[in-house]
Amino acid sequence: MWYIMNNGQQVGPMPAAGLVSYGLNPSSMVWRQGMAQWMPAGSCPELAPYMQGGYSYAQPGAQSYNQPGGYQAQPYKDKTTAGILAILFGSLGVQYFYIGKVGGGFLTILLELVTCGLWSIVVLIQGIMMLTMSQQEFDAKFVYTDKTLPLF
Known about the structure:
Elements: E1 2-6, E2 9-14, E3 29-32, E4 39-40, H1 79-89, H2 94-99, H3 102-114, H4 119-132, H5 135-143
Antiparallel strand pairs: 1-2, 1-3, 3-4
Helix pairs in contact: 1-4
C-alpha cells in the first residue's frame, strides 16, 4: 500500500493505481512500508505504469520516452476519444483496442455476438460515462487497471 504527498498532506494508504487520482508524476513524493524515506515517484520503477507526467498530454500523438530510472512511460490515452469510440463503434470493442486492452476488445466482440447485439447497450452507457468522468478517473478505471475488460 502506498502513500503520496498531496498539497503538503500525506494521503493513503492506497494501491499504486490509486495514486493516479492524486496526479502521480515523476516528482510526486511517495512512500510505502519498507522504504527508508519519502522518495520521488520517478525513482520507483514499479510506479512507471501509473505515471502521468513527463510528456505533453495536449499534443496529439504524444510520444513516450525514457523516464528517470530508465523505464518506459505509457502513452497518453484520451478519455474523450475513448468515449466517442465506445459510442460509435463500441460493439466492435474499438475503445478497448485504443486503450491497449486487446483482450477486452476481443471479449466485447464475443459478447456482442453471444447477446445478439444487446451488449451494445452496455458499451453505449460506458461511452457516455467515459465522456462524463475526469481524465484521472478514466486513467485509473480503464487505462491503469489490471482488468482485461474494465466496464464501469
